[in-house]
Design brief:
The chain has two domains: 117 residues, no CATH class; 147 residues, no CATH class. A hairpin with a 3-residue loop joins strand 3 and strand 4. The protein has a five-stranded mixed beta sheet, with helices on one face. By secondary structure, the chain is of the alpha+beta class.
Length: 325
């Protein structure tokens, strides 16, 4: 008991420095240690006749991180992404995208955590007799919160018999394979512009119709020109990367449905970021269109804007209908 009280006091002191804007962070080591400590204290403090309550109570207390991790693994697995791949689809990211400030987001998560903690104490004090009632109340609270912030709609669509994410697994694996190729190719390229030309091959294979890359020394555009069968809405999105760089993507909706377009755009932006970092670390040169790794590599560019065009007949059909609005 003394260890639990001491750790609670230490965590309260930590939270005062961790609130936005955070001055210190816990990190994976601290999170793993806390999880181990919670498990040990649950076993040590369990007594004969109350083992169920002592083991189930931590599950209530940790309901928020458990739900977040579970949804993250399902989301990545159904889309064909690595389970431990980072993304910006966690609960706190979604709340910020919903329009809440960082401070308001932290406050909402605190409220849900305190409610879960209250349910944990109730489960422990009742010796497990009220577990069905408490579990139903917890699911009711999580369901109302999910519906209020738009989570429920996304996951109901995901769980439908023809869930859209299941159809994208092959496309995701294909995009990840191209990403690995470009990362390895980065070490073989003597200048950044050659890497950008290889990146054009990647985005062309993924089905984009236009890509704009902005680096500190200028902007380059690759665009597909030529006939396109039938009218189709053009989807657009922009990803801001580190060091004042950005990538903008465009595609025809009959080639890339909206959900697939945004997924591949995210992967393509990540592909450029990783490849550029690989080039920078290998060649020890800044990432700009004029950067070269040695005197033997050379490239001359007229002006600050280069526009490459490719015929549009190559646009691959994904065999997927555009999503209905």
């Amino acid at each position: 008991m003394l260890h639990a009280v001491g750790m609670a006091g230490a965590l309260l002191g930590f939270l005062s420095y961790n609130k936005p804007p955070a001055k210190i962070y816990m990190g994976d080591g601290g999170a793993y240690f806390l999880g181990f400590l919670i498990g040990v204290l649950s076993l040590v403090n369990s007594h004969k006749g109350s083992v169920t309550a002592a083991l189930v109570a931590p599950l209530f207390a940790l309901a928020l991180p458990i739900v977040d991790v579970t949804l993250a693994m399902l989301r990545r697995g159904l889309k064909g992404l690595p389970l431990f791949r980072p993304d910006r689809m966690h609960i706190h990211h979604r709340l910020i995208d919903f329009g809440f400030s960082r401070g308001r987001t932290v406050l909402i998560l605190y409220i849900i955590s305190f409610l879960s903690l209250f349910l944990a104490f109730a489960a422990f004090w009742s010796q497990g007799h009220s577990l069905p009632l408490l579990l139903g109340f917890l699911f009711l609270v999580l369901g109302i919160a999910a519906h209020s912030f738009g989570f429920l709609k996304d996951w109901l669509a995901l769980a439908s018999p023809a869930g859209r994410s299941l159809r994208f697994r092959k496309e995701t694996r294909y995009a990840l394979t191209l990403s690995q190729w470009l990362e390895m190719e980065a070490e073989r390229r003597g200048c950044v512009f050659e890497l950008w030309q290889d990146y054009q091959f990647v985005v062309r294979k993924l089905g984009f119709s236009e890509v704009k890359l902005g680096l500190p020394d200028g902007v380059n555009i690759w665009r597909a020109v030529g006939p396109h069968a039938g009218p189709s809405e053009t989807l657009r999105t922009r990803h801001d990367l580190a060091n004042n760089t950005f990538v903008e993507f465009a595609a025809y909706e009959d080639v890339l449905p909206s959900a697939l377009f945004h997924l591949l755009a995210e992967l393509a932006a990540e592909t450029w970021q990783k490849s550029a970092l690989r080039w920078h670390e290998f060649h020890q040169a800044p990432v700009s269109f004029d950067s070269v790794s040695s005197d033997t590599s050379h490239f001359q560019k007229k002006g600050r804007l280069y526009e490459a065009v490719q015929p549009a007949w190559w646009l691959p059909k994904r065999g997927l209908r555009p999503e209905s609005t």
